[in-house]
Amino acid sequence: MLDITGLSHRYEDGHQAVEGVELHVDRGELVSIVGPSGCGKSTLLRCVAGLQRPSAGRISVAGRAVDGVPDDLAVVFQDYTRSLFPWLTVRDNVALPLRRRGLARAERRARALDALAQVGLDATAGKHPWQLSGGMQQRVAIARALAYRPALLLMDEPFGSVDAQTREDLEDLLLAVRGGAGHQGGAGHRGGAGHRRGAGHQGGAGTTILLVTHDIDESVYVADRVVVLTGAPGRVHSDLPVDLPAPRDQIGTRALPAFVRLRTEVGRAVRRP
Amino acid sequence: MTPRPRRVLGAAVARGWLLVLLLLVWEAAARRAGDLYFPPPTRIVRTMRELWWSGPPSRLWLSEQAVDDFVPSLARLLLGWALAGVAGVVVGVGIGLSRVAFHLADPVLQFGRAVPPPALIPFFMVVFGLGTSMHLAVVVFGAVWPVLLNTADGVRSVEPLHLDSARVCGLGGWARLRYVVLPAAAPRIFTGLRVALGFALILVVVAELMGSGDGIGARLNAAEREFRPDRLWAGIVLLGAVGCVLNALFLLVERRVLAWHRGARRMST
Ligand SMILES: Nc1ncnc2c1ncn2[C@@H]1O[C@H](COP(=O)(O)OP(=O)(O)OP(=O)(O)O)[C@@H](O)[C@H]1O
Ligand SMILES: [Mg+2]
């Protein structure tokens, strides 16, 4: 699904942000990316999203070289507040990318409300982003990406401003999205139960997700693999497979010896370059 | 809670007392001095009524004179302003979207803006004669700059992350303009349009003073020839009132269209 070979990026001011990054992600995989602040995680995602042309290396998404923003892609930006449009309501923000799907207006709205319900925000659809708290705005940005049902989803530190309980709900939502149509609960359970996810994107095999996070436990809990970057310039330090059993749950999975071993391993890799 | 009419009245008193006081002082001083050049406000109002508000109720009391004076001036003002607004937004967006176009156009724009529009009146008289085309040309030339420059600036300073979001959302061309660039630049566009409205009023009067058979400017010229200072004052007061009303109407629209902007700004401070 995603192939990165020999990716390097140097900013105009001469700063080498990433160097020689190799990363291959299969369709339907969820890969966590962890690493110290400033090690080039956002730079990597921006290159994959086609927002930034890397100074060297090749990136291809679904077999096609990235040149401009790939079609079937959604991004949750690290700076989520400034990525929402203050002149649109929450619902219209979430519905906006769906124009590209060629959906009718009513269908776009229904999907937007659906996605908002998934993050537990269906009640705020008519408000403007600046009328919401930081954590709520972050969830709107997540809903905008989910509503699009992309084949490839890039998320840059997407759960940073929400409370611990909501964060766990969102992690489980991510697992459900990655798995495709099957929906196991979801983060909106406090807003109302049982919202369905209709037919997804063209692939049908679930969404491929790249998740940047600073939370080591989270990186292990949700992922199939954890990629540890080291800084200045950013390189891949290690690429650890996460072989935890399939239906994961917040209490049980985190108590497994395998989970504890993995988070120790990741923690060590992050700490000691 | 006090009833609404009482509150509105209270607010009007709080805001208007200085104006009323000034009018009273002016009235008293003018009556004492008895100077022909400085008639008291009551005399000015009487003249205004004689000139413009002595018509039948079916025509909102407007006299024929009023129709002859107001309609040409207001039509020139609003039409010229609208033309300047459309041209300014279209050209401003074009220039603002392209870095090359902006750098090429900037010196031209700076020069064009620096030319005092009234200096062009003799030239426009030669080209267009004394009619409405000349007045329109003057208004458009003067009012287009604030709209154009503010629009270009607003378009150039759209939040980069908004543009990135637009790209990721797959908005290109017209959709990007309509849903991202124009709304983001709207506060600046409105600033330009408001300044332009003030310019348009000034310029329509100047153009009419320099050459016109009708309109408020022509009425001022006539009052001067007839040596009627009270009518000159009537024209001055009328123009001030027109300016205030136009500005108030504009603010009303702006407040509605840019409600999100005021809200967002209140939140961030
Ligand atoms: N536009 C830019 N111009 C120059 N240097 C930049 C630019 N953006 C980022 N950098 C530099 O590149 C390096 C990597 O930045 P990046 O934003 O990718 O880090 P990050 O891993 O996302 O950090 P964080 O976890 O704090 O978000 C940093 O040292 C930063 O200073
Ligand atoms: Mg970052």
TrEMBL record, chain A:
Keywords: ATP-binding, Nucleotide-binding, Transport. Residues 181-191 have a biased composition (Gly residues). Residues 181-201 are annotated as: Disordered. Residues 2-256 form the ABC transporter domain. GO terms for molecular function: ATP binding; ATP hydrolysis activity. Pfam families: ABC_tran. SUPFAM superfamilies: P-loop containing nucleoside triphosphate hydrolases. This is ATP-binding cassette domain-containing protein.
UniProtKB/TrEMBL annotation, chain B:
It comes from the Bacteria. Belongs to the binding-protein-dependent transport system permease family. It is a multi-pass membrane protein. This is ABC transporter permease subunit. The chain crosses the membrane at residues 78-102, 123-148, 189-211, 232-253. InterPro entries: MetI-like, MetI-like_sf. Keywords: Cell membrane, Membrane, Transmembrane, Transmembrane helix, Transport. SUPFAM superfamilies: MetI-like. PANTHER family: ALKANE SULFONATE ABC TRANSPORTER-RELATED, MEMBRANE SUBUNIT, TAURINE TRANSPORT SYSTEM PERMEASE PROTEIN TAUC. GO terms for biological process: cellular response to sulfur starvation; transmembrane transport. Its main location: membrane. Residues 70-254 form the ABC transmembrane type-1 domain. Pfam families: BPD_transp_1. It is found in: Cell membrane. Gene3D superfamilies: MetI-like. GO terms for cellular component: plasma membrane.
